[in-house]
Amino acid sequence: MNSELLAMLDYLEQEREIDKETLFDLVEEALTSAAVKELGETLVNPKVTINRTNGDVTTWADFEVVEEIGDRRTEVDLERAKEYDLDASIGDFVCCKYETSKNLTRIAAQSTKQAIMQKLRQLEKERVNEEYTDHVGELLNGTVRYFERGDVVIDFGTAEGALSQQDRIPSEDYHNGDHITVLLREVNVKRSGPSLVCSRTHADLVRKLFEREVTEIADGIVEIKAIAREAGYRTKIAVSSSEDRIDPVGACVGLRGARVKAIVRELNREKLDIVHWTAEPKQLITEALKPAEVVKVDLDYESKTAKVTVSDEQYSLAVGKRGHNAKLARNLTGWNVDITRFQFEEEQTFEQRLEEVKSMFMKIPGISEEVASNLISNGYLSLDGIGAAEVNDLCNIDGVDEEQAQIIVDYVKEKLLS
Prior knowledge:
Blueprint: H1 2-16, H2 20-39, E1 44-50, E2 57-66, E3 75-77, H3 78-84, E4 93-98, H4 101-111, H5 113-132, E5 139-148, E6 151-155, E7 160-163, E8 179-187, E9 196-199, H6 203-213, H7 215-218, E10 222-230, E11 234-241, H8 248-253, H9 258-266, E12 271-276, H10 281-288, E13 296-300, E14 305-310, H11 312-319, H12 324-333, E15 336-341, H13 350-361, H14 369-377, H15 383-387, H16 391-395, H17 402-417
Parallel strand pairs: 2-3, 7-9, 11-12, 14-15
Antiparallel strand pairs: 1-2, 2-4, 5-6, 5-8, 6-7, 8-9, 10-11, 13-14
Helix pairs in contact: 2-4, 2-5, 6-9, 10-12, 13-14
């Protein structure tokens, strides 16, 4: 057992990163428990030690020093007692080696494995708690290793974490070997399984990704003032800058969108809306409802409700698929957002209505006032109408070439699908 014991402790020291002396103490404690259980009725205070050099296992016990030995399991003569304690005298109890420890070694090998493994798990949890507690709320990079009771178990090198069903993005699938970035939400040594509780759905995951990608945020120049998230669908963040020369939205987007694209890839193509933060509620609500365009905002401060009016064409965009855009705007601003369609006044003439449509069209890239008038003349009176058109259809309109037509169609379709 000696060489096997030393080999096992060497392996555990490397694999579990536990100090070898701690492992020796752990095994001695387990073996002592086995000795008490097996020999407690015949020995007084049995105790087991392990030689750190050769791995020899020795059992010790308290023996009474007597003139004439009647029971060798509990008594020792004075001559032998002095080998262990020079001051020993008749009637004393002296801790001496128990000579028949081979039986105990055989018993211990069978009965202490469970106790040792339980203690190892406890030590590992204590180590993980000490190492990771200060990292709660931070990003961790790991590898998917296996699945256990509905959890995705992630290997972080020195510890394992669990990603439960509610902390997983609904649209994501995970496979063994996948590299994954998560937010460390909690360290819980009392839970069964991995102690690191992780999340891919928490809003702070997006916050930390921006801090990692955007140096201006990490440096404190740009600040994320508010964040709202529907994991897997869309996230809205409102940002501000402490320096006038820095555009906070532009800093987050990055050159040619490089920064935000990296975050979108990390979030499995989740949509991101980055808007300017303002302390003025009307402006903030208008920003929060982007990409939809707002006609007006009326505020009721008593109920903290914002009645938002949008055009018919913008209504579905403002509400969003499954109401996500409106819900995120509410969460981002803290206002109850009530979205209604704009109702044209009865006295409004048809010509005035056409002028409003023309103004709306002129906000589309590549459409001048003349092209907007030509679109109306050809029967296009809403964004839905343009979105349903083909590039060839728009090429037949005066002032629109094929390249412009493609830009117009792509822009409108993106608006309608957002």
